[in-house]
Batch of 4 targets.
Target 1
Amino acid sequence: AHTVARDADGVLTVGGVGVTALAEQYGTPAYILDEADFRERARAWRSAFGADADVFYAGKAFLSRAVVRWLHEEGLNLDVCSGGELATALSAGMPADRIAFHGNNKSVDEIHRAIDAGVGRIVLDSFQEIVRVSHVAQSLGKRQRVQIRITVGVEAHTHEFIATAHEDQKFGIPLAGGQAAEAVRRALQLDGLELIGLHSHIGSQIFDMSGFEVAAHRVVGLLKDIRDEHGVELPEIDLGGGLGIAYTSDDDPREPHEIAKALTEIVTRECEGARLRTPRISVEPGRAIVGPTAFTLYEVGTIKPLDGLRTYVSVDGGMSDNIRTALYDAEYSVSLVSRTSDAEPMLARVVGKHCESGDIVVKDAFLPSDLAPGDLIAVPATGAYCRSMASNYNHVLRPPVVAVREGESRVIVRRETEEDLLRLDVG
Ligand code: LLP
């Protein structure tokens, strides 16, 4: 849990550090990440699943070298999905055998680097990739541990852009029409591959466990078919990530131990029914670990009241540091954090500084009506998919990530500078 409080002046403090001091030292906007909270969540997932299962943190949610080191120390593994994420993980000392490599279009060069580095598994996403990985592994004289990602055909209850288990989409090999069974046949035949299991990721920001239940049922069904056809029991199954977090008080997420218990029970029950040894389970939570651990600190700029409608509150960032509202209609909350106020609440829309009317950070929120330029406001739960999806739109500089812990703060990803921008512009 966050160590959030208000000091005697009404200033919000996190990890023992006041937000006005943070804004002074690091500027705004800034992502403020509570290291103790991150470690606590990582540890909770780790201990919920225990020694017979593996937790792979999904690096796409947010990755930096400090995060990699925390994960390593807390005993988690890491899921990467690009050469850049792989490079970050390796450069921060994550042992390669604790890395899983994902992606629907890994380049031959990325596959080469991953196998050469000795990653613990590559998750095969297509028929062509089965052949590609086999070739590259053979050219390196290695046998690569692989899983096959299957799309089990369930509709996860979440935004369409982040649902991934229905069959009409780019990820994975469909169970339907015997395609996944055929992929298994090929993977078992080809040299250079050691097929260790099956993988299913049904989507993201999910609260309802029934999708996982259907997925586990179908994955175990395929494990059984594989046993019957080939006489092998694949030793692992990965159920992906996707567990939802609370963005607003309407969301009611499950605790890691409840999730671990539910998933383990589902898989065990299904395997008993199929008379299979229960495989080693792994999961890939990203958002559920890092999402709640950070908030974005903004300074209020222009305020535009529109009578009878709402007040537009502009901040010094926007869709470049949080694209989720524009992209997924995501909901966020917001609070005044540099002081307290007893003023009447006003209906506000928090918007950014970009040249686009869809540049909204918080669509509908109440803020005190005495809000003024220079006040600091915070948007919670921006640890996942905000810095990692940040852009330079309008040549706005991407904000830093500042970690706080026990009264101390430090930059773990620095603010972009105009020199950074111009360095890439070599025309
Ligand atoms: N494993 C795989 C194979 C994935 O594709 C993902 C997310 C995860 C694990 C982690 O999912 P999580 O536990 O973080 O939900 N940009 C979107 C989310 C896209 C998720 C993509 N894949 C958002 O901001 O909501």
Note: The pocket of LLP is lined by residues 58, 60-61, 79, 102, 162, 201, 204-205, 240-243, 284-288, 324, 328, 384-385 (CB under 6 Å).
Target 2
Amino acid sequence: MRRFVSAAPGTKQVVDRFIAGETVDQVVPIVEDAVGKGLEVTLDVVGEDITTVEQSHAARDAYLELIDRLKDLGFGEKAEMSVKLSMFGQALEGGHELALANVRPVVEAAAAIGTTVTLDAEDHTTLDSMFAIHDELRKDFPQTGCVIQAYLFRTEDDARRLAANGSRVRIVKGAYKEPAEVAYQDKAEIDKAYVRILKILMDGEGYPMIGSHDPRLIAITQELARRAGRKLDEYEFQMLYGIRSEEHLRLAAEGHRMRVYTAYGTDWYGYFMRRLAEKPANLLFFGRSILTK
Ligand code: FDA
């Protein structure tokens, strides 16, 4: 499947909608353009589920190369990084320690240029390790963020803990196929859980980052922030590059902090397939574009 999708003639055109480029040189002008328009970014070097220790070192080096370029641009926290620990070898034998050892220099380098890193949430089996790494990194770099997923039953408890300890937390609906034993399956149930978690975050001590394109959740966020007495710089919205771009600009123009999750790199397969799965129309469009080439 991976080989077929990667080689299909119409793939590139559809991938380009969601992936900002393959190299640091290609993504830097996109960051400059976004910041020039009043947006902020979180940069993701695509990649996940690596199988060798060397690939973990390569992941570290790819982020260090990016940070080295960002240093000269002086965007500070306007350009932060998102990382997937499975790209740092979390699933390998001894992978928890390996991922921590290789992500730490990235967090350190980010802090040295005045910015930070957020740990993405992957499938539910990885989360205890992700939260433990997050706690460990926060001892030296308290601004390190993490992601929680509204579809998981465990997340309200995670949100309470993170909100009480003052963490930066991105809340998303969740993008992995999870079993009914651990996650809500019904969209309306997920949305309700999202709102309950939003309340916990807004009423807590931390910095909520609202990762969603859902207009209803955006309106609810604004209302909950108002009720919690939060100023515009005490939370932020986040959306994905290539999705509802007009809305990015509208919220920024209203004075909100709007951060665009900007993925780039060559190992885009997993990221791209999750974007296709989120919206049936994307699959139809993709199917048409490979058939008509
Ligand atoms: P929903 O899926 O209901 O979409 C609302 C509307 O947004 C749709 O009607 C459509 O208009 C538009 N839209 C949404 N997705 C689209 C798509 N793929 N293509 C075209 N239009 C689309 N997940 C995870 O498990 N771990 C993580 O670490 C992250 N990180 C992350 C960061 C950021 C900044 C965002 C915005 C999202 C994530 N996600 C994630 C993904 C998240 O879990 C979820 O799958 C998507 O955001 C889609 O959910 P929405 O909240 O946008 O609502």
Note: Residues 120-121, 147, 149, 170, 172-176, 211-214, 238-240, 243-244, 261, 275, 278-279, 282 surround dihydroflavine-adenine dinucleotide (CB under 6 Å).
Target 3
Amino acid sequence: DWPALRSLMPSNVRIGTAVDGRVLATDARYRAVLGRDFNAATAENAMKWSQLQPTPGTYVWQVSDDLVAFAEENGLAMYGHTLVWHSSVPSWVSESWSAEELGELLRQHVTAVVSRYRGKIWAWDVVNEVLDEDGSLRDTIWLRKLGPDYIADAFRWAHAADPDARLFINDYGTEGRTRKADGLLRLVSKLRASGVPIHGVGFQSHLQWDKAPVEVAGNLRRFADRGLSVAITELDVRIQLPVTPERLARQAMLYEQMLAACLAVSTCESFTLWGFTDARSWIPYNYPGYGAACLFDSEMKPKLAHSALVDALRED
Ligand code: G3I
């Protein structure tokens, strides 16, 4: 047995993980570790548009509803992911629709999903990955067809559907000080200045064992200073295979540094991992030659990174 992370976290910071809804339904050991170490959960896929509405007119809520119910029963706060994204959009939603039609479809989608879980989701990723590496708006179906206002509109629709939910913008490659992070800061400042209901910024943090992001705490603080919550939303640290003790140690250091950065910023509300076990991670499929990115190995044994977090929390 190992010390449960959720019992060691400061009371104002949640520790979360992405959850694979299908594994949740079938794997008791997965459920046990999830309920023991974590007090927050994000649906890895179940709340994406393509999963919720594969065909027009019909929503398929089962996997997502089951996860929300598990979270409620086990004292995990639900983080909603994600309402507006250019990826995992159902194939029937395409640029052959007119701008008016697409705008209306998007409004209905945001409203339907947020309303269904009103009061059950503490924060939503309202828009995901809307920026390019240079900090400008990413060229997506939404930007091309609806123009840049789709971002503000999405926040307003989400806020109307659940006025108590915290509304986040989420992206990757922004956890360190990068041009993209600068662009994100400009974008959220503009949104705040025009009264858009945006409350927080999510930093995905998909890291690689040998590349540390630069000045994470200082970067997060720039957003906190503007009155925004910040959150680490999708942390994992992929290792180039073969896994060696040295690489596991470097991985542990990065996990610990990201936790330290979150704890150093007063508005950091959650520290969320993109999956907790190497048995169920997106990395091997998307980064051939890499793996072992999570806190637990594929036998569900805690790795060095897990004990590094435990040690850091005990000292904190
Ligand atoms: O559900 C279908 C299944 O019915 C079908 O038979 C199968 C065949 O391809 O695909 C299944 O869907 C897959 C889905 O995961 C569920 O397993 C998709 O193809 C696959 O593309 C999808 O990948 C997910 C990816 O986002 C795209 O949505 C990954 O699991 C998930 O980890 C990843 O998560 C993203 C975050 O949402 C945003 N930030 C980056 C992060 C990593 O890419």
Note: The chain has one domain: 5-315.
Target 4
Amino acid sequence: SIQVMTKDGAYDVNVDSELRFRLHELLPKSYRKVFVITDSTVGPLYLDDVLTELRKVSEVDYSIVPAGEGSKSSRFYFNLMTEIINAGLDRDSLIVALGGGMIGDLAGFVASTYMRGIDFIQMPTTILAHDSSVGGKVAINHPEGKNLIGSFYQPKAVLYDVDTLHTLPLREIRSGYAEIVKHSLIHPTPFWDQLKSLNLNQPLDNERLVSDLINGIHVKREIVQQDEFEQNVRQYLNFGHTLGHAIEAERGYGHITHGEAVAIGMLFALRVSEQHFNIQLPFDELYRWFKQNNYPFDVSDLSVTRLITRMKKDKKAKNSAIQMVLLKQLGECTSVRLEDNDVTLWLETFMRELV
Ligand code: NAD
Ligand code: ZN
């Protein structure tokens, strides 16, 4: 397992198959009461296994929220609070987040605020959640913006059962792998070479999954350990996200997955890095890989002007800078302020060549 150090102590990230059948041995300590939070897609698949294990050692309750980003809201947050109050959870109880990043963020935020914080563990069931389950950010959304209500709150453990990933729809596999690709590009561990041969259209292989997830988690861990509260290097994790977030918002959440949007954003960040630093990066190689794995690139109908507006720090200012994470070389990030006129030109060209 991988150990993550934080200001409030360390926790283990365990990545393996069949973990859900060894759950009661893997709990960081014994708890009188455990409350599992999951969603309506993951629940029918894995909740029974988890409850059966936990009941060997604790009194167990659970709640199932609707699958989808809509549940990361104040309404479901407050409903869950009511349920755990009624279930009698106290400071010595545990919350288990069983699901993808949505459940991890929601259940984590519940745990971080209930009675000023009770223990929680993450049981990620998506590939993307290798990213969201490590680093201690938990949040719910506000209608004015994503993740606006949240905190830094560390889990007591992350138990990643890779068997659960075999039921993921292909677009969620793509979404998660885009973040693994990101981790392979922003850190001087040369594991992009290892990803190149992967074909996401074939069934996932457990050994391969464990290795790719662990590589990704190692990069994320190193960055968040250096900068737990996002004051400097943690922003490098935003590689590909400046345009990615803009595309996600313009297209409408749900119409393109987060990772699919970030894949396009990373290609653009590579292009801009090449132009800005006058260097050569493996743009073509990455482009081919995304293409072979059927990442959607149909964004030519989106307005460059609107995307640029979304990418600006100050969205109301006429001329304001765009902050982007670029690569000085493979594995070396830097954050750069760019003129929006330059970015506009680059984006127009990029959108034309992206077919
Ligand atoms: P998600 O949790 O919504 O899962 C995506 C879809 O897959 C959902 O419909 C879910 O029901 C389904 N699903 C989950 N596991 C499954 C399984 N094993 N088999 C079949 N279907 C399954 O989304 P996500 O992509 O995992 O995460 C996105 C969320 O994570 C966003 O809310 C984002 O803001 C958040 N996030 C947080 C951080 C962080 O640092 N906290 C980082 C990145 C993303
Ligand atoms: Zn992301």
Note: Residues 206-226 form the longest helix (21 residues).
